[in-house]
Amino acid sequence: MPRTPRRPGDPPARGRQPRKPKRPKVPRDAPLDVHWDDFYARRGGRFYKDRHWLRRELPELMPAAVRADPLRHQAPLESDGEAVDRSDAFPAARELAGCGVVGLEAGCGCGAAAFPLLRANPDLFLLCADFSAEAIGILRERPEYAAQLRSRARRCHAWVADAGAAEGDAAWAACEALASGIGGLHAITLIFALSALERAPAARCVARCARLLRPGGLLFVRDYAAGDLAQKRLEAKPNRRTAEEDGFVRGEGTLARYFSRADFDALFDADFEALAVGFVERDITNRKQKVTMERRWIQGKYVRRGAPPLFSVGGRANVVEAAPAVRRPPIDAAAPPPPPPAGSADRAHHRPCAGGCLGCAQS
Ligand SMILES: C[S@@+](CC[C@H](N)C(=O)[O-])C[C@H]1O[C@@H](n2cnc3c(N)ncnc32)[C@H](O)[C@@H]1O
Question: Composition bias, kind Basic residues: at what positions (predicted)?
Answer without folding.
Answer: 16-25
